[in-house]
Amino acid sequence: MFGYFFARMAQVALREIAAGNADPFYQGKLQTARFYFAKLFPETATLMRTARAGSQSLMDSDAALA
Length: 66
Description:
Protein name: Acetyl-CoA dehydrogenase-like C-terminal domain-containing protein
Largest sheet: none
Domain Acetyl-CoA dehydrogenase-like C-terminal: 2-61
Organism: bioreactor metagenome
Number of helices: 3
Pfam families: Acyl-CoA_dh_C
């Protein structure tokens, strides 16, 4: 979901910059989107696999080990 919003944000920023808007706000939006897609978005697949793996392995642990 966040990826969609970052992509939309970048799309609007690119459109504004192409139209000649020199407001640094739009450049900041592009930099933020680049950071998100380069650093945070790739982690999403791993986090989704972890979340979907469930908690059974934790529940199978002996209470004495906790």
